[in-house]
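Please, structure for the following, as tokens.
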Amino acid sequence: MSINVESTTSPSAAVRPEQPLITCVIPGYNESANLAILLPQVVAALSKLSPRFSVLVVDDGSSDDTVATVTACAKQYPVQLLSLSRNFGKEYAIAAGLDHAAGDVVFLMDADLQHPVALLSEFFALWRNGYDMVYGIMSNRSHESSLKRFLTRRFYGLLSRAASIDIPLDAGDFRLFDRCVVDALTSLPERTRYMKGLYAWVGFKAVGVPFVPAERMQGHSSFNLRRLSGLALTGITSFSELPLRVVGLSGAVISLLAIGYGVVEFIRAFFFGVDVPGWATLVVGMAFLGGIQLFSLGVVGEYIGRIFNEVKSRPRYIVARRYGFDSKEHNGP
């Protein structure tokens, strides 16, 4: 099935409106202290780009004062709030923000103050020059451990080869989207979301801008090793059948080796007689094949689990509260 995305409000590369409607989406989880600093900075930056703008904060089930902080800022600035009913995860918070973003131009940035607000004007200038997507590239990851940097490079290299899509290394969620890109992303039906892969999959004319992430001023990142591992597994299973092919190839190789070993043993027994077999060989062989079988079942189970989540057709997220919207409340598709 193909998806035809035509935006009646999105300009072509040759024609950009002088005063586009801009929406800046900021997903956050327990980022109250950082949002109090970030929101005035973002409002000041956007006001220089167009008089028509708003900031959309997606509260991903925070347990701190995020709602109170954002609603207080909304009394002074054009700020909107989507408060989700629980912590659904960043990928779904981003999806919620894009679903509700009304802008001709949509910025996406984190709430932890590590994405430089000063780059918004540079992103916007590139959009005016015809780019439909502009993304930030971290030129310095010294704030991360050596192990994390190594695993990140290996993962994106593997995913780019396995999925046949070009996912830029060190590119994250600091981005600008033209309306046509937002429409394409929100039209995708899958519920298991790996946004960095989806950004690359939809295509469009894109360019990267290097930046150095700032130090986090308040709080700490909620992305621990468990969440990052889960996100990596989602990326692999969402965009590639490579694990299934590896399992199938492994089964074929083991079967050929078994056939070859059987032929060798037959010839050996025919000419030299039968030796008493050793228990060690038997036990090692059974353990090896049993491990391969369990591993194969686990890989197949991951894909079946993805299918199960899709066919349940539950909404990707549930909105508990909306603030600053004129339209009637609705939940995610």
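Confidence is low (pLDDT under 50) at residues 1-14, 327-332. The radius of gyration is 25 Å.
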